[in-house]
Amino acid sequence: MELGLRGRKAVVTGGSLGIGRAIARELAGEGVEVAIVARDAARLEAAARDIARESGTRCVPLGADLSDAAQLERAMAEAERALGRVDILVNNAGATPMGRIGDTPDAVWMKSIALKLMGYVRCARILTPAMRARKWGRVINVIGRSGHQPRAAYIVGSTVNASLLAFTHALAQECAPDNVLVVGVNPGPIATPRWDQVVAQGAAGAGRSVEAENAAAIATVALGRLGTPEECSGLVAFLCSDRAAFITGTMIDIDGGGTRCI
Q1: Residue 120 catalytic?
Q2: Which domains are delineated in the chain?
Q3: In angstroms, rounded to a whole number, what is the distance separating the alpha carbons of residues 33 and 7?
Q4: Most C-beta atoms within 10 A of its C-beta, which of 34, 209, 239, 247?
Q5: What mean pLDDT is predicted for residues 155-162?
């Protein structure tokens, strides 16, 4: 399928690893110039080189801790300068730890809110005005299914993700008159380094082996397996294209049938 994305410009946060890297690679493969933002400078540089080599499309590495408002603002300004404009924002940076309410002091809550919730809010606040002025733009928020299936053992992530569901709907309403489309995607268990961390944290909290924790998570998936980053990135690329020009203000689960709610 020809998506017609060649020549577009995108920012992908959390773009050096896992789902974010797969999204950046997918977009670059469609001819989109991409700026990827992450904290680990060495991994970020390596990812940008690999993506550019594989796709033949420019990929710009921008190091920043997006929980810090000043660093985030600098990174977004650098992205706009490097690319000339930003047509597509993929908000993906955010890693919230497992834990019940008694395990999560204020510092954990505030760190997660600053990185994922406020990181998404700030990036959108900076980049959407120019999209709206040009009457074309896409914001894809990578959230997670715990936002509408909260779990006690993942109380911070469930709360932050639920906030992002509301934010996505509200932003979509505001931006729709200017042809800037806003969609949330909710990955379920996806085989990434981040998933390995979540499983290890969950196993420690539940007092069982990593293998048992992973098996329990897979048992919630109707397809009976973990997903792959590429099964997320293909959908995101489609949502960024004019093939999806009538899709906004909604959430799409990428979870192998694991989310069972109306």
Answers
A1: no
A2: 9-188+227-254 (3.40.50.720)
A3: 7
A4: 34
A5: 96
